[in-house]
Design a protein that fits this description.
By secondary structure, the protein is mainly beta. The protein has one helix at 2-20; strands at 34-43, 50-58, 61-70, 80-81, 100-120, 123-140, 145-147, 153-166, 169-179, 185-197.
Length: 199
Amino acid sequence: MPNLAKYMLVVLLCGLSVGAFSQTEKKPISASMRTSLFLNAAVSNYKQPALGFTIARTGAFGYYASFMIGLNNLHFGYDAHVDADYRLTDGADAGLIPFYTGRRAYNRLSATVGAMARMKIPLFLYVGAGYGYKTETIELLNRKWAQTAASLGHSAVVEGGLVGQVDNVTLMAGYSLFIGQDKHLYHEAKVGLGYIFKK
């Protein structure tokens, strides 16, 4: 619960900073559709953030697509599973604690699509959903890899947040939630910096 509170505070502060631009922006409302490209970072309790991009098409309403991937030592394959006590849970060696090399891989990727709506120039609300994959694997002494109990595997992802605009520069602040196997949850704060192309 403290982690959830931390992420919600980050999203709230980012949202307030994005929302502050709407008080000083006095340009007339334009409903013309424009394309935006964002570079995103997803911040969580892991050391390495996930990076990615979002492409959006907005007017009074719009849509977006986003892709994110973790940067840590990626290793998607695994040969076994271990429980929370790092005991093997399958195969002939089930129940044993194997020797580990110390190498870990935090695998995280997501692809989401969603809708955007202008609340007040230059502030937009976005909500979306999509697919996510998040696992933690550790290397055994025999060079095989085991998936830990902290892994979510294939997941649903829901997200929402705000996008603020200052001239052609856009700022994104949001929250992403992975809903994994057995209803395990993983929370992230998502931030982004983008640019609006006029044509």
